[in-house]
Amino acid sequence: KLILGIESSCDETGIALYHTERGLLAHTLHSQIALHNEYGGVVPELASRDHVRHALPLIRSALQKAGCALSDIDAIAYTQGPGLSGALLVGSSIACALAYTLDVPTIGVHHLEGHLLSPLLSRPAPEFPFVALLVSGGHTQLMRVDGVGHYTLLGESVDDAAGEAFDKSAKLLGLDYPGGALLSKLAQRGTPGRFKLPRPMLHSGNLDFSFSGLKTAVLTLVNQQIDIPHPNPDGTTSHSTKPASGQVAGYLPEGEGANESLREFPTPEQTRADIAHAAQEAIVDVLVNKALAALKQTGLNQLVVAGGVGANQLLRSRLNASVGKHDGNVFYPELEFCTDNGAMIAFAGAMRLQQQVAQRDYRFNVKPRWDLREMNYAD
Ligand code: ATP
Ligand code: MG
Ligand code: FE
Q1: Cβ–Cβ < 8 Å for 372, 110
Q2: In 3D, which of 312, 303, 311 has the Cα closest to residue 334?
Q3: Fewer CB atoms inside 10 A, N or C side of the chain?
Q4: pLDDT in tens, 98-111
Q5: Of the residues 167, 184, 309, which should be mutated to test ligand 1's pocket, given the most ligand atoms within 8 Å of the CB?
Q6: What is the C-alpha separation between 225 and 89, in angstroms, rounded?
Q7: What are the Gcp-like domain coordinates in residue numbering (predicted)?
């Protein structure tokens, strides 16, 4: 069976062709990052219009890459929710119109189920049951996964998602949106240990997360430590560095009589990197600790990581080290399938197709808000 997958829940138009025996045949993607860049976030109306522009050309090029014709398609999977309603409507209307003309069934896929199952596209693939750490731009959840459609929520963020924490911290450091990967790059030049940011709920005794306090802590540091541009009366701009001496102790010459003028303060650029380093450490530390706790609580030894933050290299190396120490294994999607893509939707559609009655009702209803637990099969 050949499944066409269409993802359009947010700011990526993703298309893929997945064959139930031959695997992933082709996938194409258009990211709208550049489009939304100047607004510092996704503008829903612009997103919808851009999906309209790109969906059909991407479908054509996916078919071409796979060497398939439209008539080879046996079913069409599309992201039904959650996401931006206008953006979802574009993907679902294209999916249903196409399915109607081809006389094939449609499968409305839950976007998070797509993320959750995406590591199964890699080899070696994890086997059920496993613990999933879903860390995306909008969600941070730990789940026990016993099979397709058998999900138990173990814990989740009570406020911001991990990706959001990356993005908001990045924004405060002057990086473009979405700043997760950029912040991680900046952090590489950071000084370990110069700043320590809070790790809320690290010892909460449950598997929930909280990340909203982090952006406030980052904001406070930025205000304290980084120069702030001041407009001068003559129209020029000057910068003042504001090193709080207690916080830059590591940089001060030691001992009596250290000459005040010889004190070297880190440059604002270095300070930005140091704050980025501290922010990434704080987020990763909490994620790793809670993931370990989830493995312990469930008694399982396989951890699956999914969602955009799963592309983070520090998170990957820390998880590998600490889960490995407990004789466990960690599974990730390919880097390109961590953030939104069509392959995960086509794949989730294929899994659902095996278990679900084919739907030939081409009325579509998108679900901008949709709890993954509604996807569970009755026991
Ligand atoms: P959701 O799936 O919850 O609706 P989303 O689809 O917007 O949200 P994804 O596409 O899975 O989320 O992931 C995007 C997020 O991943 C952004 O917040 C981005 O900053 C973050 N991200 C991507 N790469 C990295 C990285 N290397 N390090 C940290 N964060 C990253
Ligand atoms: Mg995105
Ligand atoms: Fe997503």
Answers
A1: yes
A2: 311
A3: C
A4: 999 999 999 999 99
A5: 309
A6: 45
A7: 24-347
